[in-house]
């Protein structure tokens, strides 16, 4: 069974949170939700997991999966590692354009800027936490209704889920 680690269904909960809140998690599992970086780290370092994005764009559901997903510890700033893409939208975490690539990035929040841009804070600019490189390609935790997007397309509903590989 899939385990939801992130979900956006409406704008009733802001994802403009600080590092400690993203670390511990917030929201309601059945509504707008972030599991928590520490829980995700503990799960993905205990066993080999896969990651799935489900996204509703213009009334059409799309999905993308990665065969292998894990994040580093807090000391490693919860660095994202994914591989083995398959799906029907795009390889949103491993873009062929280097500045759009999220894989290998550290997690950033408005109060802890770990992206690769010298003069900008992607987390502050998008009012959210994420594995930012150069503020591009997927902003699944950004402000709902304005810059909540996936592969440059505004999304209505976004869910990230994980499950153990057999």
Task: Provide a descriptive summary of the structure in words.
With 166 residues, this protein is mainly beta. The chain is built from three helices and ten strands, in the order E-H-E-E-H-E-E-E-H-E-E-E-E. The strands form two sheets. The chain has a seven-stranded antiparallel sheet. The longest helix is centred in the N-terminal third of the chain and has 8 residues, at 37-44. The mean pLDDT is 92.
Which helices and strands, and how do they pair?
Elements: E1 3-8, H1 19-24, E2 26-27, E3 33-34, H2 37-44, E4 49-57, E5 60-71, E6 80-87, H3 122-126, E7 138-139, E8 149-150, E9 153-154, E10 157-164
Antiparallel strand pairs: 1-3, 1-10, 2-3, 4-5, 4-10, 5-6, 7-8, 8-9
Describe the structure concisely.
The chain has 166 residues and is mainly β. The protein has helices at residues 19-24, 37-44, 122-126; strands at residues 3-8, 26-27, 33-34, 49-57, 60-71, 80-87, 138-139, 149-150, 153-154, 157-164.
